[in-house]
Amino acid sequence: MLYNTLQLWLSDLATDFLPYKVEAMKVQYSIVCVLDLLAALVSGANLNVSGDAVTTRFWDCCKPSCGWKLKAPFSRPVQSCGIEDKPIDIDAGTGCNGGTAYQCSDQQPWKVNDTFSYGFAGAFIKPELTGGKIEDAWCCACYQLDFTSEPLKGKTMIVQASNTAYDVTSTNRFSLAIPGGNTTSHDACAKQYGVDQRVFGTESEGIGREDDCDNLPENLRSACKWRFEWYKDASFPSVNFKRVPCPSELTDKTQCVRNDEAELKGLAPSPAPLHEPSFWVAALGLAMTSLFLV
Ligand SMILES: *[C@@H]1O[C@H](CO)[C@@H](O)[C@H](O)[C@H]1NC(C)=O
Ligand SMILES: *[C@@H]1O[C@H](CO)[C@@H](O)[C@H](O)[C@H]1NC(C)=O
Ligand SMILES: *[C@@H]1O[C@H](CO)[C@@H](O)[C@H](O)[C@H]1NC(C)=O
């Protein structure tokens, strides 16, 4: 905003005081260059985001927050599913509020080897790390989580942020999507799977023992057991996180790929300066300056 006002003001100044036009143009050009640089830096700020975070667990069966249009610049929102666990229309409302869309069962964690697992998470990253952006910055981005607390020290996950964990905003957080890992007051799981909500365990805790995983719908059992085996039923383990390019293992399930993935991989230059109107103002300014100088 300030940026555009400044440009307008400088253009006015240039037309009102013709003799000073060249000087004004030169000043404008320099200011524009500096502002463009800043814009490029700020736009890149959510690419290489990293820090430390706490983790929690959730499995509320709700349509994931990144499953709605316009949450971020991406190919399409995170896939949601109907009660038959079949992909459902993007615009379908959430089963946690009278709608028919739920979290697809395959957006669950799985072990690759003893030190590495894939999964999905509800993210919250503090705005000072994302240039002030919220879901725009993390929806469908992937993060490497290196666990820093026992019993998981030395283990790593790569998760895709398919959801948002808004209820705590004082710290970076990844709430790992683990079936039976933490119910909420919603009855969405009962509706989605046609079971008693209690098979998903108690509020804030989820189920208490690995054996209880066998009461869950069949396609959720292995990920429920993953919590007691690979994840060692850890309680709020801490992590160092950093954004990484999304592996197709994860995006194949959500169908959601962010537009800035290529830039993150270094395959595309930052598009910011070219798309900024200031680029053209600067170009025009430069052209006119040279006209006046000849
Ligand atoms: C992000 O970090 C990687 C390596 O840490 C670097 O190669 C890349 O240029 C960085 N990208 C941006 C946009 O800063
Ligand atoms: C369960 O979810 C609630 C709400 O996000 C959270 O406050 C709580 O810490 C979670 N419990 C676990 C064990 O992750
Ligand atoms: C576990 O899998 C990851 C990802 O494929 C790989 O980078 C790592 O080397 C593997 N670790 C072991 C101990 O096999």
UniProtKB/TrEMBL annotation:
Its taxonomic placement starts with: Eukaryota, Fungi, Dikarya, Ascomycota, Pezizomycotina
Fetch the InterPro entries from UniProt. GH45_Enzymes, Glyco_hydro_45, RlpA-like_sf
One family name in Pfam for this protein: Glyco_hydro_45
Homology family: Belongs to the glycosyl hydrolase 45 (cellulase K) family.
Gene Ontology terms describing biological process: cellulose catabolic process
Quote the protein name from its UniProt record. Answer: cellulase
Molecular function per GO: cellulase activity
Parts forming coiled coils: none
- Reactions performed catalytically: Endohydrolysis of (1->4)-beta-D-glucosidic linkages in cellulose, lichenin and cereal beta-D-glucans
| E.C. no | 3.2.1.4
Organism, scientific name: Periconia digitata
Q: Which UniProt keywords apply?
A: Carbohydrate metabolism, Cellulose degradation, Glycosidase, Hydrolase, Polysaccharide degradation
| Domain annotation Glycosyl hydrolases family 45 active site: ranges | 54-256
